[in-house]
TrEMBL record:
GO BP annotations listed: lipid transport
Topology class, membrane: Single-pass membrane protein
Lineage: Eukaryota, Metazoa, Chordata, Craniata, Vertebrata
Record flagged with keyword Translocase: no
Record-given protein name: Oxysterol-binding protein
Family stated for the protein in its record: Belongs to the OSBP family.
SUPFAM superfamilies documented for this protein: Oxysterol-binding protein-like, PH domain-like
PROSITE patterns registered for this protein in UniProt: OSBP (PS01013), PH_DOMAIN (PS50003)
CDD domains: PH_OPR5_ORP8
Keyword tRNA processing: no
Stretch list, region Disordered: 225-272
Length: 672
């Protein structure tokens, strides 16, 4: 008799169809493993074989932002592959059809609309692409548990509905039929002609709605597990909110700008904009890894300067008004120093696309840790910015063809406050904040405290991640070896999702060994429940994460040489286009002297800048004038600083063309 088992038709005799009592469990397990391998091999064969295509055409898919994107859709037995274009194979995602339902969706717009969805609102997406891709091409965010799709005409839509119904209910039968049919085709035939003839074959066999399927196939057929028994662990419990299928507000969202888009794929049009000229940074100092890079032996000449400095201070005193010797200065501004956190801004691009809230928090923590390994050799302190000083730079993301812009300004001198704003609307994130830099002297040590917070926003989700900073601790000023460490507890909190992370930067104990240098420990929590533990070192060594439920540990972050080589390239403003108060141009004489190891000239040039600042402050006081910031405003109620030209709208891929910067304002070129 004929039986359909796991999508495979086999001739099994009555005597062999029943397991005898003598058959061992070992044999049963072997058969089970072979059957799983066969099912997986059969599925992967149909996905990768270019001749096995049911249908392929352009379809419009509605994203989570209620706007439409035109994508190239390829229907194969059991899966729907979504690409940006048919030519270069920019894979976006793979929909697993075995758990999906299909329904026509009413719409007042032209064309034909239908919905593919999981009835229990679980994820419909595969975790990997047809070629093993872990991350798909960047588009506007797509829902996790459903897709709303629009075909160009009713006839095309009905055709897609029929084909999807067939793929939903009869994927294994399709695989066998198409594999047999594919062998009869010339291997060099085009994919287009193949899928047309295959679809014609299905029409001829009248299999679209499954009306003529044998009774045994209708009752006993089951699609195989798409990726093995482990696939269910990737179910997305943090799915996007279901859309409203009524004809009220949801239907109004169909009237979006994408309906004006041409029906065929076109390359981006040439863009004529006036923007700042950025040049790739030619030199970058990363410093060395380990404790040796964080220590410095002070020369006898410089020791006398330190003693002179110490006569001006007393334990517990704030050092913000104390003039520091130039030999301890790193030749760049503090505004520049704050940009070190964005060489791995691509981690934030990945986090913005992550559907699961717990995984998003993990990616945010990983990005946060990536900002600490870049440091100068020895103990160096950046310049204290001059009031009104600004700094601009950007990073280019090769994978998403986007730019992350960084804008900073010194908005207050006493107390010294630096405000900053970071934006990459195309990849869906921005970050803003302000830092009050304070220094405290304790006798043989001092601490540089960064008081303030940063606010990371994922534009497509309306989520804010509020984070604080560790402090820098320098010891061995009077005796011993001068050493720099990070200390304090950092908090990263997302109020909307309820997830939070705490990271403790530990100072080296008095009797500690080398392994106790640069240690961190942390927790990731949902409410009060601890989900994971972080342990390791913030620089030169790896940080591990341990899942509390599974008790499994894995490497979480390790700034290896390979990781450092893949960091995003930074671009700074062309020197000739900088104004006089931009960091590089403002401090150019001091920087030149420090690089030439001429401490006398560096001190003189630094004094010129500081004296000019004091003179300007006195003049404003005599005239009764208040200082007005160029790029930032202060909220009169909260006291927070905000970038004047912030644009926190989610990126509209159909109308927004490119993000650019001109004269300190970050702008977006739009089509309409």
């Amino acid at each position: 008799e004929s039986k359909l088992f796991n999508g495979s038709e086999k001739d099994i005799s009555l005597s062999s169809s029943k397991l005898t009592k003598k058959e061992s469990l070992k044999v049963q397990k072997k058969n089970y493993r072979e059957e799983k391998k066969r099912a997986t091999k059969e599925l992967l064969s149909t996905i990768t074989d270019p001749s096995v295509i049911v249908m392929a055409d352009w379809l419009k898919i509605r994203g989570t932002l209620k706007s439409w994107t035109k994508l190239w859709c390829v229907l194969k037995p059991g899966v729907l592959l979504v690409y940006k274009t048919p030519k270069n194979g920019q894979w976006v995602g793979t929909v697993l059809l075995n758990a999906c339902e299909l329904i026509e969706r009413p719409s007042k717009k032209d064309g034909f609309c239908f919905k593919l969805f999981h009835p229990l609102e679980q994820s419909i997406w595969a975790i990997k692409g047809p070629k093993g891709e872990a991350v798909g091409s960047i588009t506007q965010p797509l829902p996790s548990s459903y897709l709303i799709i629009r075909a160009a005409s009713e006839s095309d839509g009905r055709c897609w509905m029929d084909a999807l119904e067939l793929a939903l209910k009869c994927s294994s039968l399709l695989k066998r039929t198409m594999i047999r049919e594919g062998k009869e085709h010339d291997l060099n035939s085009s994919a287009d002609s193949t899928h047309v003839s295959l679809y014609g074959l299905l029409r001829a066999n009248n299999l679209h709605s499954g009306e003529n399927l044998p009774e045994i196939e209708r009752h006993h057929f089951k699609d195989q597990d798409m990726y093995s028994d482990k696939s269910d662990k990737e179910n997305d419990h943090d799915h996007e909110e279901s859309d409203n299928d009524g004809l009220g507000k949801s239907e109004e969202s169909d009237s979006d700008t994408s309906e004006r888009q041409d029906d065929s794929y076109v390359d981006p049009e040439p863009i004529d904009i006036k923007e700042t000229t950025y040049l790739e940074q030619s030199h970058e100092e990363l410093g060395e890894a380990g404790e040796a890079a964080q220590t410095e032996v002070v020369s006898e000449e410089n020791k006398s300067l330190i003693w002179t400095l110490l006569k001006q201070v007393r334990p517990g005193m704030d050092l913000s008004k104390v003039v520091l010797p130039t030999f301890i200065l790193e030749p760049r501004s503090f505004l520049d120093k704050l940009s070190d956190y964005y060489y791995h801004a691509d981690f934030l691009s990945e986090a913005a696309l992550e559907e699961n809230a717990y995984n998003r928090m993990k990616k945010v923590v990983k990005w946060y840790l990536s900002g600490f390994y870049k440091k100068p050799k020895g103990l160096k302190k950046p310049y204290n910015p001059i009031l009104g000083e600004t700094f601009r730079c950007m990073w280019i993301h090769p994978r998403t063809n986007s730019k992350t812009f960084y804008i900073a300004e010194q908005v207050s001198h006493h107390p010294p406050i630096s405000a900053f704003y970071v934006s990459n609307r195309k990849d869906g994130f921005c970050l803003s904040g302000s830092i009050l830099a304070k220094s405290k002297f304790y006798g043989n040590s001092l601490s540089a405290i960064l008081d303030g917070e940063g606010r990371l926003t994922f534009l497509n989700r309306g989520e804010d991640y509020v984070m604080t900073m560790p402090y820098a601790h320098c010891k061995g000023i009077l005796y011993g070896t001068m050493t720099l460490e990070l200390g304090g507890t950092v908090n990263i909190t997302c109020e909307k999702t309820g997830y939070s992370a705490t990271i403790e930067f530990k100072l080296k104990p008095f009797l500690g060994n080398n392994d106790s240098v640069n240690q961190i420990s942390g927790k990731i929590k949902l409410g009060k429940e601890v989900l994971a533990i972080l342990e390791g070192h913030w620089v030169s060594y790896e940080v591990t994460i341990s899942d509390k439920k599974t008790d499994v540990s894995e490497m979480f972050w390790n700034p290896t040489s390979d990781i450092k080589q893949r960091r995003l390239p930074r671009y700074t403003v062309k020197f000739e286009e900088q104004d006089d108060f931009e960091s590089e141009k403002l401090w150019q004489q001091v920087t030149r002297a420090i690089n030439n190891k001429d401490q006398t000239e560096a001190t003189q040039e630094k004094y010129v800048l500081e004296e000019a600042q004091r003179k300007s402050a006195k003049e404003r006081k005599l005239k009764g004038e208040e200082w007005t910031c160029k790029l930032f405003d202060q909220d009169s109620v909260t006291g927070e600083w905000h970038y004047k030209y912030a644009d926190t709208r989610p990126w509209d891929p159909l109308n927004d063309m490119i993000q650019f910067e001109k004269d300190g304002t970050i702008q977006t070129k739009v089509r309409h």
